[in-house]
Amino acid sequence: MKVPADELASLPAGAILSGLVHRMDSHDHDREAPVREVMARLGDRWSHLILLILSAGTFRHATLRRLIAAISSEKAISQRMLTLRLRALERDGMVVRAITPTVPPRVDYSLTPLGAEFVNLTNGLLRWIEQHDAEIQENRRRFEADGG
């Protein structure tokens, strides 16, 4: 349901909301638009962690799986899910897959410059979360105590 522009403008934050609507409309509501897919990927369970690990260097698939299991508070990532996440990140140009023609073939994954830039941006978000950890925890405790 589309909110009319004049109705948005009448709201207290109408200019901000109108700007947001215009910004999202510029992507033609395409579900595969980078603005939607990359933001969704940032919030999925594994992609951001994969990018953070790859910011430390180049790794093979099995090594990535072990590192994710060691670092993540989630259950271990399946081989299939890791492959799907890596392929999606490769499709977006954030990860490069290098195949060395040996027997068996060696496949290494590393960040591209675009992926490294993305990690640098999201590291700012991680720093913000870390700086506000105690405040967030206190807000959660208060919310639960109030019957939230």
UniProtKB/TrEMBL annotation:
Signal peptide positions on this chain: none
UniProt GO MF annotations: DNA binding
Pfam families: HxlR
Keywords: DNA-binding, Plasmid, Transcription, Transcription regulation
Occurrences of domain HTH hxlR-type (ranges): 33-137
Top-level division of the source organism's lineage: Bacteria
Protein name from the UniProt record: Transcriptional regulatory protein
